[in-house]
Amino acid sequence: MKVNDHSFTALSMLSEQHDNVSIALWLKRWLQCNIKPPKISVSDQSIALMSATVQAFTQYNSLEKYLKACFSIVHGGKNVEIPLCYIRNDINHFIHLVTQWKPLKLSKFKRTKQLFGRAMGLLVYCRSIEDANPILEAIFVIALSKYDGAIVSNTKRIVAKRDTPCAKSKKYLQSLISTSQNIVLFDDETEEQHFEGDDSLETDLQNFDLSNSFRDWAKSVSTKCEAQISGIEGEFDNAQYTPDIVPLIINIMKLFPCWSSIMLNVFGYGEDIATSSRSESNFNNIKTRVFNNENMPVRIDDFVGKLVDYYRGDQLIIQTTNHETTQEIISEDNRSFTLSSSNDK
Predict the structure, then answer these.
(1) Residue-wise DSSP of 103-166
(2) Could you tell me the CA-to-CA distances from 182 to 125, 126, 172, 185, 232 in Å, in that order?
(3) How does residue 316 score in pLDDT terms, banded at 50, 70 and 90?
(4) CB 46 within 8 A of CB 15
(5) Pick from 69, 169, 166, 127: which is nearest to 263 by CA?
(6) Which of 163-167, 192-196, 338-342 has the highest mean pLDDT?
(7) Is residue 183 within 8 Å of residue 121, measured between CB atoms?
(8) How much is the pLDDT for 69?
(9) Side-chain half-sphere of 34: how many Cα atoms within 13 Å?
(10) Which pLDDT value is given to residue 320?
(11) Helix (H) or strand (E) holding 89
């Protein structure tokens, strides 16, 4: 195969190596062929893919440094370079990850899953720390509060109908959820979906830690909420008392710039949510249509040839009717790149 007068063998197109170094080197090979790097890269929350795209498409040499730069920029840092590429996560993988958290799956109250799931969806659309902070506080207050309803005194009497912080937080989130037109919803179908790599994301996140990061910010918010609700007793128990979800939220906040819109105003382009559904659909078409009638396994050169032909057709936008040529429309301002860590053969 030739790209910009550079030849690529079939073996250079396929690899069993899925670590960030191998993927980054492969991407850099394409860049050496004068192929323009994308302004947005969407992946399925694979740490290896995100690390590789950061190394290949930005001026930062690690995902950790990219995330620290985003944190500094969001908090008003003036001497921090804006990354050359906007690294984003597919919204479907993120919401699916939330639905798979054990405290939510094991909860006997369906409302608990719906409340926390939709509240995390509110965070996806936040474009500033000022927008995200009260939502995150409300989530932590509800998860950490044992009591709900009106505050009661030591004599077990209701004190002038003052709501507990938990009750106030529930009303606040319910108000946002009911009035938001962009809320990310999930249902039973979303919960039952399975995405390759999502099961290992929590472990991968534990393997790298960040100081002065979104994780530290989330942890400080959690500590503040614990102090806020300490010693307060309500008239009845909180059905959404789920303290085990707090460390999971703090952990996933490490990647807040990737799965939310917090960096959207900084970059100045992109949509509120990012999706790799088109790429996922292509994988499905390749498996169920392109190679459906093939006697597997096939020769690697035959496989690559058919794969390239498929993607050429997929990328075709306008085909002239009078000439045997094609016209492609390329937007200089909205180049995007999608990666998936699917291990399907």
Answers:
(1) HHHS-S-HHHHHHHHHHHHHHHT--SHHHHHHHHHHHHHHHH-SEEEEEE-TTS-EEEEEEPHH
(2) 8, 11, 17, 9, 34
(3) low
(4) no
(5) 127
(6) 163-167
(7) yes
(8) 95
(9) 5
(10) 39
(11) strand 86-89
